[in-house]
Design a protein that fits this description.
The chain is mainly alpha-helical and 445 residues long. The protein has one domain. The chain contains 18 helices and no strands. It starts with a helix and ends in an 11-residue tail after the last helix.
Length: 445
């Protein structure tokens, strides 16, 4: 009976989360396709700028993940007013961090893009996109925090509505600005900034209404906001290590030339789509694990983990096989460059065949985040980075030999190195979740 009820709870959270998470990469794919038809230099430039922007925003993903865990524990303990207050603390922290990061990224756009060593044409496009998109960073961080709070409150439907509305607006604005007004890659950046900011505003309105209903304070409390920042440090370290992994991989792709870099950008976007689709279970894992542990029910946390692991593995396998089967067709949607198409097709086969592993990794990652096991996750990701660097650098130092065999072989080799990363992550995560150290009960870890 418990398994049936938990399955329903998981579905109630995971289905809206899945639709919201899939909405984002679908529209990112559309953006990529729009820019891809402007030319290879623009697509390669987007690859560089996107890596920087995603790093700038995702460094602070603890605003979503950490907030979900804290709020869910409060909900499980029956402290709903405190839960809403904790969510607002995360939003205020996001406002401050977003303003600082936006200014820093705008000011350092040229040197940041130069680090990747892309061609002059690609770097020029990257700087244009990055400087404009920096204005959307505050909205990105506020949306992360507000979404995390709502997920902790066991509400994944509101973020779904916000995501669909926001990314639909983004797509329409990009089409108008890029092709209608002829703004090129700058038009895509402006469309994204406007849509992100509007989406963040909508989520904040919902959270403020909840706060008023629960009589939770709206004004920032410096002590609580600082505590939220300190609590987020372990997840920040974890994310720094993960972003370092992704940045090094992009740097290796850029060193191979515009064709492999453009293929890597599209493949990475499709991989993100796969990751976000599977991450729906991780979101449910965060919310349900935090709630169960907050209520003092370790058995429920373990039972839900077992169910979600099964769903994650099989779901990842099915989705991955579909991507691999579509590898000859999907490249045609993103670029007219035949060289990029061939390189991309080889990458998608590797991405698709590893889908089952990604499903398992994301579920356990979500469980441990929901449990507030941030310190261990930080250490594990740092160790993963150390073990991954020799693998990806081996591809870099042998890139000339790989490129001599053709861009498809070189691109596939880079993605094989990335899959080795997932194997390393799974080894650490599986070792941790099998034990009991993460099962700490109560409203606070």
């Amino acid at each position: 009976m418990r398994a049936t009820n938990q399955s329903r709870e998981i579905l109630a959270l995971a289905v809206p989360a899945f639709l919201a998470l899939v909405a984002e990469p679908l529209f990112l794919l559309a953006d990529t396709a729009i820019i891809g038809h402007l030319g290879t230099a623009q697509l390669a430039g987007l690859g560089v700028a996107s890596a920087i922007l995603l790093t700038a925003a995702n460094l602070f993903v603890f605003l979503a993940y950490g907030t979900t865990s804290i709020v869910a524990r409060q909900v499980g303990a029956g402290l709903r007013r405190s839960a809403v207050g904790a969510g607002l603390d995360g939003v205020w922290l996001a406002v401050g961090l977003g303003a600082v990061v936006a200014v820093a990224v705008w000011a350092a756009a040229d040197p940041l893009c130069a680090v990747f060593g892309a061609s002059e044409a690609a770097a020029t496009q990257a700087v244009i996109y990055l400087r404009i998109s920096a204005g959307g960073i505050p909205g990105m961080l506020v949306a992360l925090a507000a979404t995390g709070a709502l997920r902790g409150l066991q509400d994944t439907r509101t973020p779904l509505v916000a995501a669909v509305a926001g990314f639909a607006a983004n797509l329409v604005l990009n089409l108008v600005f890029v092709f209608g007004l002829g703004w090129g890659i700058a038009g895509s950046a402006w469309g994204t900034v406007i849509a992100q900011s509007a989406m963040a505003a909508g989520l904040v309105v919902v959270l403020v209404r909840l706060a008023r209903r629960e009589a939770a304070p709206l004004r920032p409390h410096v002590g609580r906001v600082l505590r939220a920042a300190v609590d987020g440090v372990p997840l920040l370290v974890r994310t720094l290590a993960l972003r370092a992994i992704l940045l090094v991989t992009t740097w290796v792709a850029a060193g191979m030339g515009d064709v492999p870099l453009a293929a890597y950008q599209v493949a990475a976007t499709i991989w993100t789509f796969q990751a976000f689709a599977l991450d729906a279970l991780a979101i449910a894992a965060q919310a349900l694990t935090g709630k169960a542990l907050g209520a003092g029910d370790a058995a429920a946390a373990r039972s839900a983990t077992s169910i979600m692991l099964g769903w994650g593995g099989w779901g990842g396998l099915g989705l991955g096989l579909v991507l691999a089967a579509l590898s000859p067709v999907l490249p045609l949607l993103f670029t007219a460059d035949s060289a990029v198409q061939q390189a991309l097709a080889s990458a998608l086969i590797v991405v698709g065949l590893s889908g089952w592993l990604a499903g398992l990794v994301f579920v356990v990652d979500g469980v441990l985040i929901g449990a507030g096991d941030g310190t261990w996750l930080a250490k594990a990701m740092a160790a993963t980075l150390a073990l991954y660097l020799p693998v990806v650098l081996a591809v870099h130092y042998n890139s000339a030999a790989l490129l001599a065999l053709g861009a498809p072989i070189a691109t596939a080799a880079l993605w094989c190195a990335f899959i080795a990363l997932m194997v390393i992550r799974w080894a650490f995560l599986w070792h941790r979740v099998r034990g009991d150290a993460w099962l700490i009960l109560g409203s606070a870890r």
